[in-house]
Every structure is written in structure tokens, then in C-alpha cells.
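re: ur question from earlier - yeah i can do the single chain one, its not a big deal. heres the input i used so u can compare w yours
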Amino acid sequence: MLETYHRGSTAPLKIDTRNAAGDLYDPDTSFTVSVYNSAGTAVLTDEVMTKESTGVYYYNLPTTGSFATGAYRVVYTIVNAGLTSKSSDFFILTDPAAPATGWSVITLTDQLRSEIDVNPDAAGGTIPDRLAKLVRQKGIWLFNHQDWLFRKQPATLTVPVGSADIAMPDDFKKLDGDQMRLNDTSPYTLLWTEDPSAWQRAKDLAGHSASNIPRVALVYYTGGAWKAKLWPANDTARTYDYWYLKANPWAGSSPIADNISLSPTYWPEDFDEGWYLLCAYTIYSRFRADDSWKGYKSEFTNWLKDHEAQNNETISSGLEPIRDVMGDFGATLRGLSGLELPGGRVKWYGST
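and the output i got, formated as C-alpha cells:
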């Protein structure tokens, strides 16, 4: 887990040195530290570190208002027995006047690029697009991996008079169930399907010119957006409260920009950790020759297992979730396949 400090505070940088046998030792020549912001600009260059004890050194970095918020790379340089060795670490600097934000595609890619860079002193420069694509793809995978509770959103379907086609929310992915109830004391439900033929059979049964309480709805994707086609056509304005699962923030015609942080707007802050571990595991395994990726894989596996079990990132609302009485849309199709619509073949309107 990366250390996070507030801008204006002191960032304590500490490291120990060990030889091949694992014993602490003091370099015979020098031990210095440099710090770079996410743009690759040095904010500290080759400052001598203070010895705390044998093999343990520290440097207290005072941050000021001129320091940009974001990820910082720390480079430790040891000169011993005529040889120079370097190691890197990272920390996050946030503004205490604002909530801390997590990774964006750019900041996470830049950190991982710096971690796997053969030359730890390389400037930030342009982030290789191949790494950004991997980071973006892994973010999409993690978001879509499960119907996480934080993806559940409350909404209201407003159906004007005579309207048969309704736009769903911009971030809509799928319904959380297959029935909606009217926002009044009537018992009428709106039955949903994903199968156009089932919806068409219901329309044939009700009549192509019918105008009454909508009873069947087809959810479909067109023109870069999700829509709902209702039948019969609505004879008076009605509303339905419901729940849906939101799409990942990269989906649709207006995906988020790569410089936008995912938490806390799009997912809980602890999902930033899972995103980092998944990306580190993937990128380390592809671009480094050692086995360091195995540690990240193990950590991500444990993180995912815990979150799948708990899945406790939830929302609160006074709305009642849609009753998934048939289990899934496939069950809805089976119910419609024999034209067994609410109320049966004859008693269509006014039934429940």
C-alpha cells in the first residue's frame, strides 16, 4: 500500500541497506535520494540521507504549496565499493483541503512504467500507449467482473402519454430484475424482456393500436445508448422506481478521460488497490524477466476473493429493489413464449 501525505506536511523517506547475506551495512561512499513528480520533474536531487542506525537511513522531505498533488517517485542511490546501485519507491501527495483521490489511467500507468523501467532515473516523458491500454482494459475487467453492489443505482422511469420508446440512464448497463411496479397504489407491473420476438408476440396479443397501461417492455441498444420499448402505448403519464447496474465508466459514447481518477466517483476507494495489483501482476509478467509478478498475482487473488465474499460496497435508498421473481431474462422469455402474460390471454388489462 502506498503511503499518502498531505501537501504542506513532511514526507518521511526511509530505507535500509542489506548485503547479499541479508545483513545491514553502511555504504562506504555515499547514500543520496532524489524525488520526481508525476511529470518527471525533480523536486529533490541527490540529497544526502541521514544515518539513523547501521544500514538504516532517512530523509524528511518538507512539501509546500508548490508541490503538485499526485504520485511521486523516490530514487535512492548507493555508492559502495566503487559500484552504484539504485532503488525506487513511491508515495502519494494530496491536498488536505480536498478528499484524496485514487488512480487514473495516466497516474497508474506512469507509476507502473516507472517501476518496470530499466533506468530508474528516466524522466516521465510520454507514457507508452501499450501500457495505458493494458491499464484501461484491466479497469474495465475489474468493474465488469461481478455485479458489485456499488454498481446498483436507483432511478425513475418516466413514461409520457403515448410514448412507446424511453431512453434509459446514460450509464445504464442492465436491469437489476425483470419487473417494475407503478408508483401508485395500483397493482400493475411492467414485465421486461431482452428478446424482441417475445415482445412482438405480446404486442400481437394486446393489439398494435392499443393504448393503455404499459405491460411489456423490451430493453435494447441503439445509436450508442440503451432504450426501452413499451407496449401498449401509455394512455397517461406514469412513473416507475427501479434499480439498475451502471456500466463501466469507459463504456458508451462519452468515456471518461484518462486523467480522471476512478475513486470515489465511479467505485469505492479500496478498488484502487485491486486495480493496481491486477495491473502490476499483468504488466510485470509481460515486461520484466524476473518472478516479481507472482507476488502481485497472489495479492490480487486474495484481494479479489475477499471482495467477492464481502461485496459490501453498497448504496442506501428508500426504493424497493425490483422483484426478480423469474430469476433472469431467460425466465421472462419462457413466460412469454406461451403468451402467458399477466392476467392470461383474455383478462389482459387490469390484471396483476
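The two ends are 54 Å apart (CA to CA). not sure if urs matches, ping me
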